[in-house]
Design brief:
single chain; 158 residues; mainly alpha; 2 strands; 68% helix; CLN6; transmembrane; membrane; CLN6 transmembrane ER protein
Length: 158
């Protein structure tokens, strides 16, 4: 038991300094998501011809979505992520009324965020009935950290 506690991520929920770590991490990511949203707001064009994504970009959507999934789950910043995603969605709908469409960069970022949301939903659904993680992450918003899953289920087998 002591070895598992030493391996526990210092900012993990329920660990030492959990409250300070979680709120600090969320505050630390606010400028990152503001910059992403600002960048995204400039990714619109009036031409539908520029509304496609090149092949190599399509190949990079999966690693990008996986990276954001890890950032959202391990950093416990789901609220910030979902707020940014819905702001991006609202901007897309607003610009569509002005007949402006996402260019390839905007499509890439929006596709990455959509894939991330799907991955987070699958992650939560997969671990929904895990009694230990449910106890560790109480509350309405349940997004367990990959590190907590690893220390609980994977490293304990070795």
């Amino acid at each position: 038991m002591e070895a598992a506690r030493r391996r526990q991520h210092p900012g993990a929920a329920g660990g030492p300094g959990a409250q300070l770590g979680a709120s600090f991490l969320q505050a630390r990511y606010i400028p990152f998501f503001l910059i992403l949203f600002t960048y995204f707001s400039g990714c619109f064009t009036a031409s539908k011809a520029e509304r496609w994504m090149p092949g190599p970009a399509l190949l990079l959507v999966a690693p990008s979505g996986l990276y954001y999934w890890y950032l959202v789950t391990e950093g416990q910043i789901f609220i910030l992520f979902i707020f940014t995603f819905f702001a991006m969605l609202a901007l897309v709908l607003h610009q569509k009324r002005k007949r402006l469409f996402l260019d390839s960069n905007g499509l890439f970022l929006f596709s990455s965020f959509t894939l991330t949301l799907l991955l987070v939903a699958l992650w939560v659904a997969w671990l929904w009935n895990d009694p230990v993680l449910r106890k560790k992450y109480p509350g309405v918003i349940y997004v367990p950290e990959p590190w907590a899953f690893y220390t609980l289920h994977v490293s304990s087998r070795h």
